[in-house]
Amino acid sequence: MQKEKLIRKYDKQVKLYEKNRHNPTLAKWRREMLKDLHGNVLEVGIGAGANLAYYNKQNVHVTGVDFSVEMLKSAKKAADYHNVSAEFLLKDVDTLDFEPDSFDCIVSTLTLCSYQEPVRVLGKFNKWCKQGGSIRLLEHGLSSHSFLSFSQKLIDPLFKRVSGCHCDRDIIQLVNKTDISIEHIERYWTDMVYLVWAKPSIK
């Protein structure tokens, strides 16, 4: 799916993403992933700001990045509602750049499925995260169950055309292709949902 078409798609889906802020299962995972973060946090693909309710607002300043104008408008409203210190950048991750060691923590939730070069994006996370910082990923991807994984691979071309993202990416394999070090993994929904606690490489 061409980038411009994908952006228009996300612009039109903002109400759906706002509704998903209240999904109780996702809320539980978001809270678990984000509750202990502190300092300057980069959230790439912030969408409608579903994570903003779950940061410890006394301890963080969030830089939220997205390529959808409508998503960022919604995220700004969410930040105001939850009284989270935040700033927002209308940027595509492919062209996004920061100085090395710019952030204490980097967060990505349900975004690695849509990047053309997810390993390159993860490499940027490693570069931007400070030594001793944390990288948190909540992603969907390839199941470890053989029948499900076979089905995901089979339907992925159609899934990509319809939704704009892939359903058969092995998130752990992607991370392991970078210098990021995984500290802890939890998997749910027949292993199709990945929660990853990681840290940047020694630089």
TrEMBL record:
One GO-annotated biological process of the protein: methylation
One Pfam short name: Methyltransf_11
Cross-referenced InterPro entries: Methyltransf_11, SAM-dependent_MTases_sf, Thiol_S-MT
Alphabetically ordered keywords of this record: Methyltransferase, Transferase
MF (Gene Ontology): S-adenosylmethionine-dependent methyltransferase activity
Ranges for domain Methyltransferase type: 42-135
Protein name: Class I SAM-dependent methyltransferase
Source species: Gracilibacillus oryzae
